[in-house]
Amino acid sequence: MSRFRPVDRGTGYLLPPSVDEWLPENHLARFIVEVVENLSTTQLERDYAGRGSAAYHPNMLLALLVYGYATGVFSSRKIERATYDSLAFRFIAANQHPDHDTLATFRRRFLNEFSELFVQVLQVACEMQLLKLGTISLDGSKIHANASRHSALSYRHIDKLEPQLRQEVQQLLMQAEQADQSAVPDSMELPEEIARRETRLAALAQAGKD
Description:
By secondary structure, this protein is mainly alpha-helical. The protein has one domain (19-209). The chain has helices at 28-37, 42-49, 58-70, 76-85, 87-92, 100-109, 111-127, 140-149, 155-181, 197-209; strands at 132-133, 136-137. The protein has a two-stranded antiparallel sheet. A hairpin with a 2-residue loop joins strand 1 and strand 2.
């Protein structure tokens, strides 16, 4: 008798009825969504709405990109794929899947607004005494020391960090643009000719005979 746990990829599972139940309460994705929802984005919503078919909510796109860049995912194609593959990205996107063109166009069209809002997210993280936001260092040691002596965090210390935060955001946006302009294909995507399961299995069987 096998001592291994069975591997069954065919049986259906009952997932939580709400994406809100997919992640633990202390997950970074939740923090970013909550911060973005409390930012003043009225003008961005007005400018992005446009005409025609309903657009993705800019707050969702903003949170999706901020989380991606904060966790080292800069390619819009990879962020699009992550809305299918990653629970955190899927939670932020509310089970929607904006394509890479939508994500890249949003960032480029509202680059100034996006940069400013990104900085505000980092400032809130500093005020919450976080040492890092994902992979982004917030130089939180000085802030934490100050906060330990006072009941409220001094905004003067946050102001001193603002140039550093703005520079950090600009570097992240440059990395995102470079990633989107790269011609390197997504290594997670199968060639079109073997994308279908039937064709893939046939190709594997033939490869075993060669």
